[in-house]
C-alpha cells in the first residue's frame, strides 16, 4: 500500500514537471535574452561627445597619444563612431579622460 502512494506521488510529480517545464524554460529564455541585451552596446555616441568638446578625430587621436600614450588612429576613431568596431575598455577610458565624459556617455545602453 505504501508503494502505491509513493508511485502516485511520483506520477503526480512527473505530470507537474512535464506541464510546467515549458513555462519555466520560457521564463529562463526571457531572462537570458534580457541579460544579453543588458550586455550589448547600443549606438556609439562618441561623435557627439567629441564634437561637443570641439575637437576633431585627429585632435582626439593626438591627445590620446601625447597625454596617455594610447595609439588610437583617426581611422580607428571613425570606426568607433560609425559602430563598425566597439571601443576596448582602455581606449574608452582614455577617451573619457580626454573628453571629460563618462563611459555611459559614449554609448546608448539598452534597457
Describe the overall structure.
With about 110 residues, the chain is mostly helical. The chain has 2 domains: about 1-40; about 45-105, 434 Repressor (Amino-terminal Domain) (Orthogonal Bundle), CATH 1.10.260.40. The protein has 6 helices and no strands. Helix 3 crosses helix 4 and helix 3 crosses helix 5. The protein is rod-shaped, with a radius of gyration of 26 Å. The termini are far apart. The mean pLDDT is about 85.
Number of domains: 2
The tally of strands reads 0
Architecture per CATH nomenclature, i.e. the level-2 architecture of the largest domain = Orthogonal Bundle
Distance between the termini: 56 Å
User: According to CATH, what is the class of the largest domain?
Assistant: Mainly Alpha
The rough form would be described as rod-shaped
Q: Beta-sheet strand percentage?
A: under 5%
Q: Assign the CATH superfamily of the largest domain.
A: lambda repressor-like DNA-binding domains
Helix content: over 70%
Poorly predicted parts: none
Q: What's the CATH topology name of the largest domain?
A: 434 Repressor (Amino-terminal Domain)
- Tell me about the largest β-sheet: none
Order of helices and strands: HHHHHH
Work out the helix count: 6
Radius of gyration: 26 Å
Mean pLDDT over the residues:
84
Class computed from helices, strands and strand pairing: mainly alpha
Amino acid at each position: 500500500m505504501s508503494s502505491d502512494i509513493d508511485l502516485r506521488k511520483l506520477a503526480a510529480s512527473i505530470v507537474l514537471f512535464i506541464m510546467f517545464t515549458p513555462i519555466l524554460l520560457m521564463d529562463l529564455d526571457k531572462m537570458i535574452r534580457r541579460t544579453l541585451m543588458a550586455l550589448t552596446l547600443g549606438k556609439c555616441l562618441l561623435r557627439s561627445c567629441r564634437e561637443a568638446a570641439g575637437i576633431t578625430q585627429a585632435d582626439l587621436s593626438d591627445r590620446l597619444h601625447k597625454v596617455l600614450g594610447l595609439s588610437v588612429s583617426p581611422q580607428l576613431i571613425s570606426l568607433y563612431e560609425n559602430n563598425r568596431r566597439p571601443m576596448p575598455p582602455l581606449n574608452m577610458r582614455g577617451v573619457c579622460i580626454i573628453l571629460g565624459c563618462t563611459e555611459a556617455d559614449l554609448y546608448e545602453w539598452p534597457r
